[in-house]
Amino acid sequence: MAAAGAPAPATLVLEDGRVAAVVPAPEVVPPRPGDWEVDAAGRLVVPGAVDAHTHLALGTLARLSGLPGQAPAVLHAWRSRLRTSLEPRAEAEHVEALTAAGAVAALRGGVTCAFDLLRAAPGRAAESLAAAGRAVEAVGLRAVLAYGASDRDGAGLGLREAGASAAFAERHRDHPLLRGAAGLDGLDAAPDDLLAALSALAPRHGLLASIAEDETDLAAAYFRGALRPIDLLAARGLLGPRTVVAHGATTIREEGARLAAAGATLASTPRAAAFWGTQMPPLAELAGAGVAVALGTDGLFPDTACELVASVLFQRGQARTPRAAQDLAGSTLWPCAARLAGRSFGAAFGELTPGAVADVVILDWRPAVPLPALPLGDLALLWAGAPAAWAIVGGQVRLREGRLLGVDEAAVAARARQAAAHLLA
């Protein structure tokens, strides 16, 4: 595979799911029988992106409902309907169909690894996780899956959902593409017994938590002990190196110190925040305090490079120096997600170096001028919006010149539309 956009032209050799070698030109690597030989000349070869927080199924449902084109008043009504009507009606077959379509969209957006927090089909968490696992495995996306536990739909339900996530995680501890984690869907419907159960599960499996998407969790945390949301998580033993706190809109610097001390990751979703009209946490300030800040899509938008652009534009207005926002992008926002994936899968992500995981994307982006040797975060600001021509996950070709391999993409789309029609009826 010819690697364009690297500091110098090279051939990237992938074997046994890893990068075996990076051979500089003009040295030739002769292909062996059965090898894929891909000419990427003129295109950009990059490590696959990592989406640190998404809802693959619900994001697909939102797009198929026409939600992105609606007026703000409709958005809030739809969000309420999602919680009270659409999610409870979902069955495993709907989760599988919608997740598969979301996984395809992620691959096309250059994402090869997604941290997916499920919420659909409350009370049927085990079935939902199994369905989502089948979907992402069939498409070929790498994923960490958790069910967002809560008692929102019934007392004691969160404990069963937490148990389902733990069981899924145990079954997939050595799976080549899938991992499991404990999950938490907010603090407002999380009783003490649920938080205690998650604190026992998080050190072993990690925790994906949707926290403080708006001020609801701030009120809930204060009510339970005059604490802020991140402080409450810390007090309950829920912060650790494999904890991902998504959103964190109300997070302040003092809470950031707790995240940094625990090695936890804050997953910011800038376009979703703008879409729903919620605030963004002070990313530059938190990163300056040592917080690992990564980017997620919230399922609405599959392209994480565009999330990077949105984040930089947002931060630029708050920055004290002209380059502060861009420096944040290159040094923190882009590489932190890859390090997070490495903790879950026990390998190096986000690199095209020998030994790194062979999650590689060839972007259909042809710069008009030769590129300097830029950090990937800076390059991502330039390639944002470029579709993936090829996507390779764990050394396996999943997307070839824009065509999905091994799965009938038309059938995936048809099943997703049928599932959405059923839920939206």
Could you characterize what this model shows?
The chain has helices spanning 56-64, 72-89, 92-108, 125-139, 157-171, 192-205, 216-223, 229-235, 253-262, 270-276, 283-288, 304-316, 324-345, 376-383, 409-424; strands spanning 2-3, 10-15, 18-24, 44-47, 49-54, 111-118, 142-147, 178-180, 182-185, 207-211, 243-247, 265-268, 292-295, 360-363, 388-393, 396-400, 403-404. Helix 4 runs parallel beside helix 5, helix 12 runs antiparallel to helix 13 and helix 13 crosses helix 14. Residues 1-7 have low confidence and may be disordered. The N and C termini lie far apart (47 Å). With 425 residues, it is an alpha/beta fold. A five-stranded antiparallel beta sheet has the order 4-14-15-16-17, with helices on one face. Strands 9-10-11-12-13 form a five-stranded parallel beta sheet.
